[in-house]
Design goal:
Layout (H helix, E strand, L loop, with lengths): L20 H9 L6 H19 L2 H10 L13 H14 L1
Helix pairs in contact: 2-3
Length: about 90
């Protein structure tokens, strides 16, 4: 079983469909679009989960620079250069 988060039920494998419940969620999300900001936050949550699993200092440091909630207006990451780097990465991916 894969547990995707504290508040989420464990993801289980279904022998009938061959898809885990997590994969079925992915199929449902296939046609949805994320804004550039939402994609950044999704990456942050992914890295945050990896940090919780590994306690990697490198990932922890990166998360500190990326944290969107540091400023009271939540308008930019703690390090605004991270946002600029993210935009460059998005352009490369497109």
């Amino acid at each position: 079983m894969i547990n995707a988060g504290v508040n989420n039920p464990p993801k289980t494998y279904s022998a009938e469909t061959g898809l885990s419940s997590l994969n079925r969620e992915v199929v449902k999300m296939e046609n949805k679009m994320l804004t550039v900001e939402q994609a950044y936050k999704a990456m942050f949550y992914f890295l945050e989960h990896q940090y919780e699993l590994t306690k990697s200092d490198e990932i922890g440091g990166l998360l500190g620079f990326m944290d969107w909630t540091l400023w009271s207006d939540s308008s930019t990451p703690a390090d605004p250069a991270m946002w600029e780097d993210w935009l460059v990465a998005v352009k490369r991916a497109l």
